[in-house]
Write a structure and sequence with these properties.
- The chain has seven helices and five strands.
- It is of the alpha/beta class and 193 residues long.
- Helix 4 links the parallel strand 3 and strand 4.
- The protein starts with 5 loop residues before the first helix and ends in a 7-residue tail after the last helix.
- 34% of the residues are buried.
- InterPro entries: PHI/rmpB (IPR017552), SIS_dom (IPR001347), SIS_dom_sf (IPR046348).
- Its EC number is 5.3.1.27.
- Keywords: Isomerase.
- GO terms for molecular function: 6-phospho-3-hexuloisomerase activity.
Length: 193
């Protein structure tokens, strides 16, 4: 197996540094008071549902898994085992542009059923944001930021990465306040893998 050239190694290191610097800039510009409201929405929900498309969907699926480890009832919209959403439930959605059709439709349906909707987006004025009870703006580029003014990364990559990290921070905060130890949570981890 060939080793990478020194030029490739330098470029890889520079790219990783650039990505991390973009995240430091993003976390310094988050609205933490808004983000902290999500904690209560989750704690008060009978069931938590998540919906995103592509990499945003993957990030939210990982978040749902962690909520289950904490003992919350969480489901991924579209999975065959997901129950019906109803009054007292919460739908957490993500769309960088705030215009993803299937995510908007899910949010509308959730509202019709009496559920609360929280959205992650880059656009506080988006259609998705207008439907939502709480909008969490991640100051990242949407997939339509071709000028790379907000992020040097491809399309909505910074949004998708930030979504994963912010969801992990929300999970970690819920965990710290739950007084559950890791062994207790591990009992809820999948054991049919």
């Amino acid at each position: 197996m060939e080793t990478g050239s020194s030029d490739s190694i330098v470029v890889l290191k520079d790219n990783l540094k650039m990505i991390l610097e973009e995240h430091v800039r993003l976390i310094n510009n988050l609205e933490y008071e808004e983000l902290s409201l999500l904690l209560d929405y989750i704690r008060q929900a009978n069931n938590v549902f998540v919906k995103g498309v592509g990499r945003s969907g993957l990030a939210l699926s990982g978040f749902a898994m962690r909520l289950i480890h904490l003992g919350f009832r969480a489901s991924i919209v579209g999975e065959i085992t997901a129950p019906a959403i109803s009054d007292g439930d919460l739908l957490v959605v993500a769309s960088g542009s705030g215009s993803t059709h299937s995510v908007i439709k899910a949010a509308q349906k959730a509202k019709e059923q009496g559920a609360k909707v929280v959205c992650y987006t880059t656009d506080a004025g988006s259609e998705l944001s207008k439907i939502s009870d709480l909008t969490l703006v991640l100051p990242a580029a949407s997939k339509y930021d071709y000028e790379q003014e907000v992020s040097k990364q491809y399309a909505g990559t910074l949004f998708e990465q930030a979504l994963l990290l912010v969801c992990d921070a929300v999970f970690h905060t819920l965990w710290q306040t739950s007084k559950q130890d890791a062994q207790m949570m591990l009992k809820r981890h999948a054991n049919l893998e």
